[in-house]
Backbone:
């Protein structure tokens, strides 16, 4: 028998502003990811201010990039008439890959400006990103965002609340739960093997994360009701192939590296 989700996506209101479960769960996901990044940074003897600054850069970029790609994909035609929608996160969601790509670009710029080893920094960020994204997808499950195609499987979900983004009364794949479980498993694998992977070279942990992420999302998007854009593949699957190519390039770079990475040392005088 399908599971019924009848939860109002709006948890409560504050002075008339709706506070959604998605936003609250995103805060929890961010807190856990920050804690994981800080712990891994301490293990690698990276100064905490480096990690804190990198988190600010990556977090801000992820919000902007995630919202921007979401709006382009879902509200592109209405932006000319309603440009303010681009900042109205409460009226829609965030694109997973938009946030990831923006965060990666932000860390590239951050590493260059602060004179730190980019690949080593990405290795610290990878497990944190995996567990943060796993928790964040629970918010999508509550609100019905990123829903799957109809199914008659016994673990299907049915949404009943009118505020849900998913179709009401239809048994569908809980793709949000699938992704949360698989990303949590990816985190466990990365966390358990991070020391061994790091011995293979800087960037190997991050590459393993990106490969796992691309594989998970490539497969799951066959269960998402979205239009194909290229050779029968959906937008996220095409982007995922690009992410996989980047991960392979990182692995090749790690194997070919002949010199130790630049220490992750703080230079407070640089901006």
Residues:
């Amino acid at each position: 028998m399908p599971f019924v989700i009848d939860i109002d996506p709006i948890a409560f209101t504050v002075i008339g502003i709706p506070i959604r479960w998605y936003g609250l769960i995103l805060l929890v996901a961010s807190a856990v990811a920050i804690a994981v990044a800080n712990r891994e940074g301490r293990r690698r003897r990276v100064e905490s201010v480096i990690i804190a600054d990198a988190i600010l850069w990556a977090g801000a970029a992820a919000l902007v990039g995630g919202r921007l790609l979401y709006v382009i994909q879902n509200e592109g035609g209405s932006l000319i008439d309603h440009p303010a929608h681009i900042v109205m996160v409460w009226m829609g969601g965030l694109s997973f890959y938009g946030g990831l790509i923006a965060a990666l670009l932000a860390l590239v710029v951050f590493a260059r400006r602060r004179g730190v080893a980019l690949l080593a920094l990405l290795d610290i960020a990878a497990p944190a990103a995996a567990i943060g994204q796993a928790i964040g997808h629970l918010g999508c499950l509550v609100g019905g965002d990123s829903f799957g195609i109809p199914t008659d499987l016994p673990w299907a979900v049915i949404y009943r609340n009118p505020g849900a983004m998913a179709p009401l009364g239809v048994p569908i794949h809980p793709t949000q739960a699938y992704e949360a479980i698989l990303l949590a498993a990816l985190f466990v694998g990365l966390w358990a093997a991070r020391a061994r992977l790091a011995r293979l070279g800087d960037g190997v942990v991050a590459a393993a994360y990106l490969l796992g992420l691309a594989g998970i999302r490539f497969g799951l998007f066959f269960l998402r009701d979205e239009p194909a854009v290229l050779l029968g593949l959906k937008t996220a699957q095409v982007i995922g192939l690009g992410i996989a190519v980047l991960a392979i390039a990182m692995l090749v770079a790690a194997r070919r590296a002949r010199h130790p990475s630049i220490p992750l040392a703080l230079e407070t005088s640089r901006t």
Summary: The helical segments are 21-43, 48-75, 96-114, 118-143, 175-198, 204-220, 235-256. Residues 3-187 form one domain. The beta strands are 3-5, 10-14, 17-20, 157-159, 228-230, 233-234. Residues 258-262, 266-271 have pLDDT under 50 and may be disordered.
